[in-house]
Amino acid sequence: MVSLTAVQTHNATLKSLSSGLVAVFVGGTSGIGLYTAREFVRNTKAPHIYLIGRNQVEATRIIDELHELNPSSKLNFIKSDVSLLRNVDEVCKEIKEKENKVNLLFMTVGYLTLKGRDETEEGLDRKFSLHYYARMRFAQNLTPLLNSAANDMGPNARLARVVSVLDPQLGLKLVPNFSDLSLKNSFSLKNCGIHASAMNNFALEHLGNMHSNISFIHAFPSGVNTGAARGMGQVWLNVLKVATVLLKPFMVDPTESGERHLFASTAPRFAPKAKGDGMDELATGSDGKSGSGAYFVSWNGEVFGESKKMESMRNNGAREKIWEHTEEVFRKICKGKDKY
Ligand SMILES: NC(=O)c1ccc[n+]([C@@H]2O[C@H](COP(=O)([O-])OP(=O)(O)OC[C@H]3O[C@@H](n4cnc5c(N)ncnc54)[C@H](OP(=O)(O)O)[C@@H]3O)[C@@H](O)[C@H]2O)c1
What superkingdom heads the lineage (predicted)? Predict the structure, then answer.
Protein backbone atom coordinates (compact mmCIF):
# COMPACT_ATOMS: atom_id res chain seq x y z
CA MET A 1 0.00 0.00 0.00
CA VAL A 2 1.19 3.50 -0.80
CA SER A 3 0.98 5.39 2.49
CA LEU A 4 -1.18 8.50 2.67
CA THR A 5 1.94 10.46 3.66
CA ALA A 6 3.71 9.33 0.47
CA VAL A 7 0.62 10.32 -1.53
CA GLN A 8 0.50 13.77 0.08
CA THR A 9 4.26 14.27 -0.35
CA HIS A 10 3.98 13.46 -4.06
CA ASN A 11 0.91 15.67 -4.53
CA ALA A 12 2.74 18.61 -2.94
CA THR A 13 5.44 18.35 -5.65
CA LEU A 14 2.88 19.12 -8.38
CA LYS A 15 3.30 22.84 -7.68
CA SER A 16 6.76 22.53 -9.29
CA LEU A 17 5.17 21.58 -12.65
CA SER A 18 4.48 24.29 -15.21
CA SER A 19 1.47 26.46 -14.52
CA GLY A 20 -1.69 26.10 -16.59
CA LEU A 21 -2.16 22.30 -16.48
CA VAL A 22 -5.52 21.44 -18.08
CA ALA A 23 -7.78 18.85 -16.44
CA VAL A 24 -11.21 17.65 -17.57
CA PHE A 25 -13.41 16.03 -14.90
CA VAL A 26 -16.26 14.13 -16.54
CA GLY A 27 -18.55 13.78 -13.51
CA GLY A 28 -16.92 16.64 -11.60
CA THR A 29 -20.02 17.95 -9.85
CA SER A 30 -20.11 15.25 -7.16
CA GLY A 31 -18.24 12.45 -5.42
CA ILE A 32 -14.84 11.15 -6.46
CA GLY A 33 -14.63 13.50 -9.46
CA LEU A 34 -15.25 16.52 -7.25
CA TYR A 35 -12.90 15.32 -4.46
CA THR A 36 -10.13 14.80 -7.02
CA ALA A 37 -10.77 18.12 -8.79
CA ARG A 38 -10.50 19.83 -5.41
CA GLU A 39 -7.06 18.25 -4.77
CA PHE A 40 -5.93 19.09 -8.32
CA VAL A 41 -6.87 22.75 -7.78
CA ARG A 42 -5.23 22.81 -4.33
CA ASN A 43 -1.94 21.33 -5.56
CA THR A 44 -1.25 22.93 -8.96
CA LYS A 45 -0.39 26.39 -10.27
CA ALA A 46 -3.07 28.26 -12.27
CA PRO A 47 -4.85 25.09 -13.48
CA HIS A 48 -7.57 25.15 -16.15
CA ILE A 49 -10.40 22.93 -14.93
CA TYR A 50 -13.42 21.67 -16.84
CA LEU A 51 -16.24 20.14 -14.80
CA ILE A 52 -18.76 18.16 -16.86
CA GLY A 53 -22.17 17.26 -15.43
CA ARG A 54 -25.80 18.32 -15.44
CA ASN A 55 -26.26 20.05 -12.09
CA GLN A 56 -25.81 23.78 -12.71
CA VAL A 57 -26.58 24.78 -9.09
CA GLU A 58 -23.91 22.44 -7.66
CA ALA A 59 -21.43 23.48 -10.35
CA THR A 60 -21.84 27.18 -9.49
CA ARG A 61 -21.28 26.45 -5.80
CA ILE A 62 -18.23 24.26 -6.56
CA ILE A 63 -16.67 26.84 -8.87
CA ASP A 64 -16.92 29.51 -6.15
CA GLU A 65 -15.38 27.11 -3.63
CA LEU A 66 -12.52 26.04 -5.92
CA HIS A 67 -11.78 29.61 -6.91
CA GLU A 68 -11.43 30.54 -3.26
CA LEU A 69 -9.10 27.55 -2.73
CA ASN A 70 -6.83 28.66 -5.60
CA PRO A 71 -7.60 32.12 -7.01
CA SER A 72 -5.19 31.54 -9.93
CA SER A 73 -7.33 28.67 -11.26
CA LYS A 74 -9.54 29.00 -14.36
CA LEU A 75 -12.77 27.09 -13.81
CA ASN A 76 -15.35 26.09 -16.40
CA PHE A 77 -18.56 24.09 -16.18
CA ILE A 78 -20.01 22.42 -19.25
CA LYS A 79 -23.59 21.32 -18.68
CA SER A 80 -24.40 18.23 -20.68
CA ASP A 81 -26.07 14.83 -20.45
CA VAL A 82 -23.12 12.78 -21.67
CA SER A 83 -25.00 9.47 -21.71
CA LEU A 84 -25.58 10.61 -25.33
CA LEU A 85 -22.44 10.20 -27.44
CA ARG A 86 -23.42 13.05 -29.72
CA ASN A 87 -23.39 15.30 -26.62
CA VAL A 88 -19.90 13.99 -25.77
CA ASP A 89 -18.77 15.19 -29.19
CA GLU A 90 -20.25 18.65 -28.53
CA VAL A 91 -18.49 18.91 -25.15
CA CYS A 92 -15.15 17.87 -26.67
CA LYS A 93 -15.61 20.38 -29.48
CA GLU A 94 -16.09 23.13 -26.89
CA ILE A 95 -12.93 22.09 -25.02
CA LYS A 96 -10.93 21.92 -28.28
CA GLU A 97 -12.02 25.46 -29.13
CA LYS A 98 -10.61 26.74 -25.84
CA GLU A 99 -7.52 24.60 -25.22
CA ASN A 100 -4.63 23.27 -27.28
CA LYS A 101 -3.70 20.57 -24.74
CA VAL A 102 -5.26 18.41 -22.03
CA ASN A 103 -3.05 16.98 -19.28
CA LEU A 104 -5.66 14.92 -17.46
CA LEU A 105 -8.96 13.38 -18.51
CA PHE A 106 -10.56 12.08 -15.30
CA MET A 107 -13.84 10.18 -15.66
CA THR A 108 -16.25 9.16 -12.89
CA VAL A 109 -19.52 9.72 -14.68
CA GLY A 110 -22.19 7.16 -13.79
CA TYR A 111 -24.68 6.11 -11.14
CA LEU A 112 -25.96 3.18 -9.11
CA THR A 113 -29.32 1.71 -10.07
CA LEU A 114 -31.34 -1.45 -9.63
CA LYS A 115 -33.44 -0.68 -12.71
CA GLY A 116 -33.16 -2.78 -15.84
CA ARG A 117 -32.13 -1.64 -19.31
CA ASP A 118 -32.90 2.04 -19.88
CA GLU A 119 -32.29 2.74 -23.53
CA THR A 120 -31.18 6.18 -24.70
CA GLU A 121 -32.41 7.63 -28.00
CA GLU A 122 -29.07 6.43 -29.42
CA GLY A 123 -29.92 2.80 -28.60
CA LEU A 124 -27.50 2.18 -25.73
CA ASP A 125 -28.29 1.44 -22.08
CA ARG A 126 -27.87 4.77 -20.22
CA LYS A 127 -25.76 3.47 -17.34
CA PHE A 128 -23.59 1.29 -19.59
CA SER A 129 -23.08 4.26 -21.89
CA LEU A 130 -21.89 6.42 -18.97
CA HIS A 131 -19.65 3.69 -17.57
CA TYR A 132 -18.08 2.72 -20.89
CA TYR A 133 -19.05 4.18 -24.29
CA ALA A 134 -19.16 7.87 -23.28
CA ARG A 135 -15.84 7.53 -21.45
CA MET A 136 -14.12 5.95 -24.46
CA ARG A 137 -15.59 8.59 -26.76
CA PHE A 138 -14.09 11.31 -24.51
CA ALA A 139 -10.75 9.45 -24.57
CA GLN A 140 -10.82 9.07 -28.36
CA ASN A 141 -11.84 12.69 -29.01
CA LEU A 142 -9.31 14.17 -26.62
CA THR A 143 -6.25 12.07 -27.53
CA PRO A 144 -4.96 14.78 -29.92
CA LEU A 145 -4.98 17.28 -27.03
CA LEU A 146 -3.49 14.71 -24.63
CA ASN A 147 -0.73 14.03 -27.18
CA SER A 148 -0.07 17.78 -27.39
CA ALA A 149 0.34 17.84 -23.60
CA ALA A 150 2.70 14.85 -23.81
CA ASN A 151 4.88 16.70 -26.31
CA ASP A 152 4.79 20.02 -24.45
CA MET A 153 8.26 21.55 -24.37
CA GLY A 154 7.67 23.46 -21.10
CA PRO A 155 9.57 22.40 -17.96
CA ASN A 156 8.14 19.22 -16.40
CA ALA A 157 4.83 19.71 -18.14
CA ARG A 158 4.45 16.48 -20.06
CA LEU A 159 1.73 14.95 -17.93
CA ALA A 160 -0.81 13.24 -20.21
CA ARG A 161 -3.14 10.78 -18.53
CA VAL A 162 -6.61 9.27 -18.85
CA VAL A 163 -8.25 7.87 -15.70
CA SER A 164 -11.53 5.93 -15.70
CA VAL A 165 -12.86 5.28 -12.18
CA LEU A 166 -15.04 2.17 -12.00
CA ASP A 167 -13.74 -1.29 -11.08
CA PRO A 168 -11.32 -3.46 -13.09
CA GLN A 169 -11.88 -6.52 -10.89
CA LEU A 170 -14.96 -8.13 -12.47
CA GLY A 171 -13.28 -7.95 -15.87
CA LEU A 172 -10.20 -9.71 -14.50
CA LYS A 173 -12.26 -12.74 -13.48
CA LEU A 174 -15.29 -12.97 -15.77
CA VAL A 175 -15.76 -13.22 -19.52
CA PRO A 176 -18.12 -10.85 -21.36
CA ASN A 177 -20.56 -12.08 -23.98
CA PHE A 178 -18.61 -11.31 -27.16
CA SER A 179 -21.62 -11.97 -29.37
CA ASP A 180 -23.64 -9.23 -27.63
CA LEU A 181 -21.12 -6.71 -26.32
CA SER A 182 -23.65 -3.85 -26.15
CA LEU A 183 -26.05 -6.13 -24.18
CA LYS A 184 -28.92 -5.35 -26.54
CA ASN A 185 -30.32 -8.87 -26.05
CA SER A 186 -28.74 -10.08 -22.81
CA PHE A 187 -28.92 -7.10 -20.46
CA SER A 188 -28.86 -7.66 -16.70
CA LEU A 189 -27.25 -5.57 -13.99
CA LYS A 190 -24.68 -8.34 -13.48
CA ASN A 191 -23.83 -8.50 -17.19
CA CYS A 192 -23.66 -4.71 -17.33
CA GLY A 193 -21.14 -4.76 -14.46
CA ILE A 194 -19.01 -7.44 -16.15
CA HIS A 195 -19.09 -5.78 -19.58
CA ALA A 196 -18.34 -2.26 -18.29
CA SER A 197 -15.41 -3.58 -16.25
CA ALA A 198 -13.89 -5.85 -18.92
CA MET A 199 -14.47 -3.38 -21.75
CA ASN A 200 -12.80 -0.55 -19.79
CA ASN A 201 -9.89 -2.92 -19.08
CA PHE A 202 -9.28 -3.96 -22.69
CA ALA A 203 -10.10 -0.61 -24.31
CA LEU A 204 -7.74 1.29 -22.00
CA GLU A 205 -5.04 -1.32 -22.67
CA HIS A 206 -5.63 -0.89 -26.41
CA LEU A 207 -5.41 2.91 -26.14
CA GLY A 208 -2.23 2.62 -24.05
CA ASN A 209 -0.68 0.64 -26.90
CA MET A 210 -1.90 3.02 -29.59
CA HIS A 211 -0.88 6.22 -27.80
CA SER A 212 2.46 5.49 -26.27
CA ASN A 213 2.95 8.98 -24.78
CA ILE A 214 -0.27 8.87 -22.75
CA SER A 215 -0.94 6.66 -19.70
CA PHE A 216 -4.33 5.02 -19.23
CA ILE A 217 -5.64 3.99 -15.81
CA HIS A 218 -8.67 1.99 -14.74
CA ALA A 219 -9.06 2.80 -11.04
CA PHE A 220 -11.04 1.08 -8.27
CA PRO A 221 -12.07 3.58 -5.56
CA SER A 222 -13.26 1.01 -2.96
CA GLY A 223 -16.22 2.32 -0.90
CA VAL A 224 -16.51 6.11 -0.77
CA ASN A 225 -19.53 7.90 0.67
CA THR A 226 -20.80 9.94 -2.32
CA GLY A 227 -24.01 10.75 -4.12
CA ALA A 228 -23.77 7.68 -6.37
CA ALA A 229 -26.98 6.09 -5.01
CA ARG A 230 -29.11 9.24 -5.19
CA GLY A 231 -31.34 7.83 -7.93
CA MET A 232 -32.16 4.57 -6.14
CA GLY A 233 -35.29 5.68 -4.27
CA GLN A 234 -35.85 6.50 -0.60
CA VAL A 235 -36.06 2.91 0.71
CA TRP A 236 -32.67 1.96 -0.71
CA LEU A 237 -31.19 5.29 0.36
CA ASN A 238 -32.26 4.54 3.95
CA VAL A 239 -30.75 1.04 3.75
CA LEU A 240 -27.52 2.48 2.37
CA LYS A 241 -27.44 5.15 5.09
CA VAL A 242 -27.42 2.42 7.76
CA ALA A 243 -24.92 0.32 5.79
CA THR A 244 -22.63 3.34 5.41
CA VAL A 245 -22.58 3.86 9.19
CA LEU A 246 -21.81 0.16 9.79
CA LEU A 247 -19.18 0.01 7.03
CA LYS A 248 -17.56 3.37 7.84
CA PRO A 249 -14.37 1.77 9.23
CA PHE A 250 -13.90 -0.05 5.89
CA MET A 251 -14.63 2.91 3.65
CA VAL A 252 -12.19 5.43 2.23
CA ASP A 253 -12.54 8.95 3.59
CA PRO A 254 -13.69 11.24 0.71
CA THR A 255 -10.79 13.70 1.06
CA GLU A 256 -8.30 10.81 1.15
CA SER A 257 -10.00 9.34 -1.94
CA GLY A 258 -9.45 12.66 -3.75
CA GLU A 259 -5.81 12.75 -2.68
CA ARG A 260 -5.24 9.14 -3.76
CA HIS A 261 -6.92 9.67 -7.11
CA LEU A 262 -4.74 12.73 -7.70
CA PHE A 263 -1.74 10.48 -6.99
CA ALA A 264 -3.01 7.90 -9.52
CA SER A 265 -3.52 10.77 -11.98
CA THR A 266 0.00 12.15 -11.71
CA ALA A 267 2.53 9.75 -10.11
CA PRO A 268 5.48 8.94 -12.43
CA ARG A 269 5.25 5.21 -11.60
CA PHE A 270 2.21 5.03 -13.94
CA ALA A 271 4.28 6.18 -16.91
CA PRO A 272 3.14 6.00 -20.53
CA LYS A 273 4.51 3.11 -22.56
CA ALA A 274 7.14 5.21 -24.35
CA LYS A 275 8.40 7.04 -21.29
CA GLY A 276 8.98 4.39 -18.66
CA ASP A 277 12.46 3.41 -19.81
CA GLY A 278 15.15 4.12 -17.26
CA MET A 279 12.73 4.88 -14.40
CA ASP A 280 13.40 2.86 -11.28
CA GLU A 281 9.96 2.83 -9.63
CA LEU A 282 7.57 1.72 -12.37
CA ALA A 283 4.23 0.01 -11.72
CA THR A 284 3.30 -3.25 -13.43
CA GLY A 285 0.99 -2.65 -16.38
CA SER A 286 -2.26 -4.46 -17.21
CA ASP A 287 -0.35 -7.00 -19.33
CA GLY A 288 2.01 -7.91 -16.49
CA LYS A 289 4.91 -5.93 -17.95
CA SER A 290 6.56 -3.11 -16.05
CA GLY A 291 5.59 0.39 -17.29
CA SER A 292 3.50 -0.84 -20.22
CA GLY A 293 1.23 2.25 -20.30
CA ALA A 294 -2.13 0.91 -19.03
CA TYR A 295 -2.62 0.20 -15.33
CA PHE A 296 -5.36 -1.23 -13.11
CA VAL A 297 -4.98 0.67 -9.87
CA SER A 298 -6.67 -0.07 -6.55
CA TRP A 299 -7.80 2.57 -4.05
CA ASN A 300 -4.51 2.19 -2.10
CA GLY A 301 -2.18 2.92 -5.03
CA GLU A 302 -1.24 -0.72 -5.65
CA VAL A 303 -1.93 -2.33 -9.03
CA PHE A 304 -4.03 -5.45 -9.54
CA GLY A 305 -1.80 -8.25 -10.72
CA GLU A 306 -2.02 -9.82 -14.17
CA SER A 307 -4.92 -12.30 -14.38
CA LYS A 308 -4.84 -15.64 -16.21
CA LYS A 309 -8.45 -15.11 -17.34
CA MET A 310 -7.59 -11.77 -18.91
CA GLU A 311 -4.50 -13.24 -20.54
CA SER A 312 -6.56 -16.02 -22.08
CA MET A 313 -9.17 -13.50 -23.34
CA ARG A 314 -6.36 -11.32 -24.72
CA ASN A 315 -4.89 -14.33 -26.55
CA ASN A 316 -8.32 -14.93 -28.09
CA GLY A 317 -8.44 -11.39 -29.50
CA ALA A 318 -10.60 -9.75 -26.82
CA ARG A 319 -8.85 -6.40 -27.11
CA GLU A 320 -9.35 -6.15 -30.87
CA LYS A 321 -12.96 -7.42 -30.73
CA ILE A 322 -13.92 -4.90 -28.03
CA TRP A 323 -12.26 -1.95 -29.78
CA GLU A 324 -13.74 -2.86 -33.19
CA HIS A 325 -17.20 -3.05 -31.59
CA THR A 326 -16.64 0.31 -29.86
CA GLU A 327 -15.65 1.97 -33.14
CA GLU A 328 -18.68 0.46 -34.85
CA VAL A 329 -20.95 1.99 -32.17
CA PHE A 330 -19.20 5.36 -32.58
CA ARG A 331 -19.50 5.19 -36.39
CA LYS A 332 -23.19 4.42 -36.30
CA ILE A 333 -24.19 6.94 -33.63
CA CYS A 334 -21.73 9.80 -34.10
CA LYS A 335 -21.01 9.70 -37.83
CA GLY A 336 -24.16 8.01 -39.11
CA LYS A 337 -26.42 10.01 -36.72
CA ASP A 338 -28.23 6.71 -36.31
CA LYS A 339 -29.28 4.47 -33.42
CA TYR A 340 -27.12 1.50 -32.45
N1 LIG B 1 -18.53 5.70 -4.53
C2 LIG B 1 -18.18 4.42 -4.48
O3 LIG B 1 -18.09 3.83 -3.40
C4 LIG B 1 -17.87 3.67 -5.75
C5 LIG B 1 -17.39 2.33 -5.64
C6 LIG B 1 -17.07 1.64 -6.81
C7 LIG B 1 -17.23 2.25 -8.05
N8 LIG B 1 -17.72 3.54 -8.11
C9 LIG B 1 -17.88 4.13 -9.43
O10 LIG B 1 -17.11 5.32 -9.49
C11 LIG B 1 -17.76 6.29 -10.31
C12 LIG B 1 -17.88 7.58 -9.54
O13 LIG B 1 -18.76 7.41 -8.47
P14 LIG B 1 -19.11 8.56 -7.44
O15 LIG B 1 -19.33 7.86 -6.17
O16 LIG B 1 -18.14 9.67 -7.51
O17 LIG B 1 -20.55 9.04 -8.02
P18 LIG B 1 -21.35 10.41 -7.88
O19 LIG B 1 -21.02 11.12 -6.62
O20 LIG B 1 -22.78 10.08 -8.11
O21 LIG B 1 -20.81 11.27 -9.15
C22 LIG B 1 -21.21 10.94 -10.44
C23 LIG B 1 -21.00 12.12 -11.35
O24 LIG B 1 -21.50 11.75 -12.65
C25 LIG B 1 -22.30 12.82 -13.14
N26 LIG B 1 -23.33 12.28 -14.02
C27 LIG B 1 -24.19 11.25 -13.79
N28 LIG B 1 -24.98 11.06 -14.85
C29 LIG B 1 -24.61 11.97 -15.79
C30 LIG B 1 -25.05 12.27 -17.10
N31 LIG B 1 -26.04 11.59 -17.70
N32 LIG B 1 -24.43 13.25 -17.78
C33 LIG B 1 -23.43 13.98 -17.21
N34 LIG B 1 -22.98 13.74 -15.97
C35 LIG B 1 -23.57 12.76 -15.26
C36 LIG B 1 -22.88 13.50 -11.91
O37 LIG B 1 -23.13 14.84 -12.22
P38 LIG B 1 -24.59 15.54 -12.34
O39 LIG B 1 -25.38 15.09 -11.18
O40 LIG B 1 -24.22 17.01 -12.33
O41 LIG B 1 -25.11 15.11 -13.66
C42 LIG B 1 -21.71 13.40 -10.93
O43 LIG B 1 -20.84 14.48 -11.12
C44 LIG B 1 -19.11 5.70 -10.72
O45 LIG B 1 -19.00 5.16 -12.01
C46 LIG B 1 -19.32 4.59 -9.70
O47 LIG B 1 -20.08 3.53 -10.26
C48 LIG B 1 -18.03 4.25 -6.99
Answer: Eukaryota
What is the rounded distance in angstroms from the CA atom of residue 233 to the CA atom of residue 116? Answer: 14
**How far from chain centre, in Å, is Cα 242?**
29
What are residue 163's phi and psi, to 5 degrees?
-125, 125
Distance of alpha carbon 156 from alpha carbon 116, whole angstroms:
47
How far apart are the CA of 153 and the centre of ligand 1, in A?
35
Of 90, 23, 26, the C-alpha closest to 54 is 26
Mean pLDDT within 154-164: 83
Residue 114's pLDDT is 85
Which of 111, 130, 199, 244 for mutating ligand 1's site (highest number of atoms within 8 Å of CB)? 111
CA 302 vs CA 171, 267, 311: distances in Å: 17, 12, 20
Residue 137 φ then ψ, to 5°: -70, -40
- CA separation, residue 168 to residues 97, 196, 303 (Å): 33, 9, 10
Instruction: List pocket residues of ligand 1, CB cut-off 6 Å.
Output: 27-33, 53-55, 81-83, 108-111, 130-131, 165-167, 221, 223-224, 226-228
How far does residue 113's CA lie from ligand 1's centre (Å)? Answer: 11
- What number does CATH give the domain 4-335? 3.40.50.720
d(CA 164, CA 196): 11
Q: What pLDDT, in 10s, does the model give residues 70-118? A: 999 999 999 999 999 999 999 999 999 999 999 999 999 999 888 899 9
User: In angstroms, rounded to a whole number, what is the distance separating the alpha carbons of residues 19 and 293?
Assistant: 25
Closest ligand 1 atom to 51 CA: 43
In this structure, which residue's CA is closest to atom 23 in ligand 1? 27
Centre of ligand 1 from the C-alpha of residue 109, in Å: 4
Taking a C-beta distance cutoff of 8 angstroms, is the pair 181, 322 a contact? yes
